[in-house]
TrEMBL record:
Domain FtsK: 187-374
Residues that coordinate or bind ATP: 204-211
Membrane-spanning segments: 6-23
A Pfam match: FtsK_SpoIIIE
Domain of life from the UniProt record: Bacteria
Keywords, alphabetical: ATP-binding, Membrane, Nucleotide-binding, Transmembrane, Transmembrane helix
Protein name: FtsK/SpoIIIE domain-containing protein
Organism expressing this protein natively: Actinomadura fulvescens
SUPFAM superfamilies the UniProt entry points to: P-loop containing nucleoside triphosphate hydrolases
């Protein structure tokens, strides 16, 4: 090769490298699908046996293999040189390590997922314990184990933490009672559908992102034909800015008890309406009769249950009963609750434990004590608890979110400032029905 050709080859290589760099820089997603993913697939298949062996996930089995045996040479040559050996190929049964069977490696925007067939005697937890080792072997941010079918698991590898930057949602999708709050760690949008999971707990330590999540919910629900109700036991400082879009706002326990009883009364009205029309729930009613869904946000729920003295006992008991009944009956009658607080533990009274059991949607932000995580997620997979305890303080908005099917995800809410939520509340203020009209209270009769 002459010098000129050498320069030409170098030039072409440099141009290709620069092009690849630019492609990766300006359009990382297509670069991942076009170049990164195929290379990773090759790497995963080629190294699977070694990786699983390192993670102690292989099993040993006897198999026929061609072996190369060193045999001492017999005869006169051996006598003259004791170390003379002869190599001989032989087929015989030996112990070999067998890796679990790997399915197709399928791409996701943030990495890949692959089905693995468990060896007899293995359980998904064996892989969960090895997840960190797998992540290091594959040079990725994390590996999650999803178990949906007996005998099989799916490994979900994420190349980088998709929860570092959350792109703002594109606005309401048009589906009633569906809100997009942010992203899940698998890169999918974090979506709550109140019709599927009607009531939610939102817990976390101070500054963990609970209020931001409420802002995101308000911003997403504001354009929808839904009535919003606020219980702000911080004296109204959290929800007052959103008052234009709220049909009712209670800012202390006395107001909360009255509002909860109104809400329960409305549940009973809806129940009567459904009974009259032979409908099992409001969604089965003719559209023109169907009442507007109500979403109630309760901030600092502990304040509803704390008692300074015995005189408050009755009020606390009424609150607990009303909340519990709304939660038990609300789903069929389109009344939904989101209950937020730093703790929603049994120390607040027996009513709270019963209430918590009925709140099937769980969102647990960073917590300071393991009991809070346990209280929010304790009845789910223990790995969800571990993941909640690992949420770092420098990642507000990151939470473990679980629906009623028991699957859980690391997720992060989109950052929604108070100003953005307030702007949405003002922009859609006309959609807020008057509370008395909504619950059918006749004020003229009362006067
Ligand atoms: N998803 C997010 N992305 C980026 N920053 C966030 C996110 N969620 C919250 N933050 C930031 O973290 C800080 C605390 O958030 P937030 O007020 O929601 O916490 P909190 O749990 O309600 O705290 P407190 O209980 O003290 O009211 C805020 O400054 C907010 O800007």
């Amino acid at each position: 090769m002459d010098v000129q050709t050498g320069y030409l080859v170098l030039g072409v290589l440099a141009a290709a490298a620069a092009g690849l760099w630019a492609w990766r820089h300006w359009h990382p997603l297509s670069f991942w699908y076009g170049i990164g993913y195929p290379l990773r697939v090759v790497h995963v298949y080629l190294t699977w046996r070694a990786v699983t062996s390192g993670c102690k996930l292989t099993r040993s089995k006897r198999a026929f293999r061609v072996t190369l045996d060193a045999l001492p040479v017999v005869g006169p040559a051996a006598r003259s040189a004791a170390n003379v050996v002869e190599y001989k190929r032989r087929v015989r049964r030996v112990d070999v390590e067998q890796a679990p069977r790997l399915g197709l490696v399928l791409p996701t925007p943030y990495g890949w997922r692959v089905r693995v067939k468990l060896h007899d005697g293995q359980i998904p937890d064996d892989y969960a314990k090895a997840a960190e080792r797998l992540a290091h072997a594959w040079r990725v941010h994390g590996v999650r184990v999803l178990a949906r079918k007996p005998g099989k698991i799916t490994l979900l590898a994420t190349r980088r933490d998709p929860l570092v930057h959350i792109a703002p949602s594109g606005g309401w999708s048009g589906e009633l009672l569906v809100v997009r709050l942010g992203n899940l760690e698998n890169g999918e949008p974090w979506v709550i559908d109140f019709r599927a999971v009607p009531h939610w707990i939102n817990v976390g330590a101070t500054q963990s992102g609970k209020s931001n999540l409420c802002n995101a919910i308000i911003k997403e629900l504001a354009p929808q034909p839904v009535a919003l109700v606020g219980f702000d036991l911080k004296g109204g400082v959290e929800f007052t800015p959103y008052a234009p879009r709220l049909s009712a706002l209670a800012t202390n326990r006395k107001e909360s008890v009255d509002l909860l009883e109104d809400l329960l009364g409305e549940v009973h009205n809806r129940m009567a309406l459904c009974r009259t029309h032979g409908a099992r729930n409001v969604w089965k009613l003719p559209e023109e009769l169907r009442p507007m869904p109500i979403v109630a946000l309760v901030d600092e729920v502990a304040e509803l249950f704390l008692m300074a003295d015995k005189s408050e006992k009755d009020e606390v008991a009424r609150t607990g009963t009303a909340l519990l009944r709304i939660v038990q009956l609300g789903r069929a009658f389109a009344v939904y609750l989101i209950i937020c607080g730093q703790r929603i533990g049994s120390d607040l009274g027996p009513g709270v434990t019963a209430l918590r059991a009925q709140l099937s949607g769980r969102i647990c932000h960073r917590v300071n004590d393991p009991e809070t995580a346990n209280m929010a997620l304790g009845d789910l997979d223990p790995a969800a608890l571990d993941a909640a305890r690992l949420i770092p303080a420098e990642a507000p908005g990151v939470a473990i979110a679980a629906g009623q099917d028991g699957t859980w995800h690391r997720a992060r809410s989109e950052y929604v400032s108070e100003e953005a939520a307030e702007a949405a509340a003002y922009a859609y203020a006309t959609l807020a029905p008057a509370w008395d009209e909504l619950i059918g209270r006749d004020l003229t009769a009362a006067a």
